[in-house]
Specification:
alpha/beta, Rossmann fold, 2 domains
Length: about 260
């Protein structure tokens, strides 16, 4: 594996860690696995001490928040509002699906792995079944062409570096036939790589304005290996308290 591939893999890993421990499994080295196992054991101990069941892995902060939001939306709207939950990771949707089933929630799902008949069935269900209050959609599968004005709440589980992808997804509910106020919730974890992605989104928007105003495209228009490396350089510098930390320091994590 070349350095570019290695750092891209680490980039993907730290993104998935922001979502849920389960999503990161299988993508990590033994050292990182040890840190996560230790956190898992402590969370399980806290759950048992609170007298709660721990049949499945305790939810991450982000997973806990999305479950809380879905319950809050149903309570506030008396069950009248419907919600789209977007994630770029189908594995994240798998974890959320498991937790929703454990709570006997009524929902459906739409992603690229489904055949056409199943996708159409999912759309018909969210549009016509009053008991179905949520649909889980992979970000790319739901980016273009869908009309989901039956939903007026949107939860984005993870940011993407290109804001245009997110905005295309949000447009699924911003339709002419939309009759309710639309509320969008973007879930991010502070002091993580997701802060950097939000910075990149701001840069992309700035670039779009420059291009429209001046007719020229600045060079920093896409996510690059160099950009990923610069991010990790900043992280390692803060961690070790030095601006001269080598990127080889990532090897300290065993990755």
């Amino acid at each position: 594996m070349g350095n570019g591939d290695k750092y891209s893999s680490i980039y993907i890993f730290v993104l998935t860690v922001c979502n849920a421990r389960e999503v990161a499994l299988g993508r990590i080295c033994t050292t990182c696995q040890g840190f996560l196992d230790q956190a898992h054991r402590q969370a399980s101990k806290n759950t048992r001490n609170a007298g709660q069941s721990s049949i499945i892995t305790p939810p991450s902060t982000k997973m806990y928040k999305v479950l809380e939001l879905l319950e809050e939306i149903q309570r506030e709207s008396s069950g009248r509002d419907k919600t789209i939950v977007f994630s770029q990771w189908t594995s994240m949707l798998d974890v959320l699906e498991q937790r929703l089933r454990a709570r006997n929630a009524v929902f459906t799902r739409f992603d690229g792995s489904m055949n056409e008949a199943d996708r159409q069935r999912a759309l018909e269900t969210i549009r016509s079944d009053p008991k179905t209050h949520a649909i889980l959609i992979s970000l790319k599968a739901g980016g273009v062409g869908l009309n989901l004005a039956c939903c007026n709440r949107v939860i984005l589980l993870d940011p993407w570096w290109n804001p245009a992808i997110e905005e295309q997804a949000f447009d699924r509910v911003h339709r002419i036939c939309q009759t309710k106020p639309v509320l969008i919730y973007k879930l991010t974890v502070e002091n993580t790589i997701e802060d950097w992605l939000l910075e990149m989104q701001d840069n992309k928007r700035r670039i779009a304005h420059i291009t429209l105003d001046h007719g020229r495209v600045p060079p920093e228009t896409r996510l690059t290996t160099e950009g990923i490396l610069n991010y990790f350089q900043r992280v390692l510098s803060r961690w070790r308290g030095s601006e001269n930390t080598s990127l080889d320091g990532i090897k300290l994590f065993g990755c």
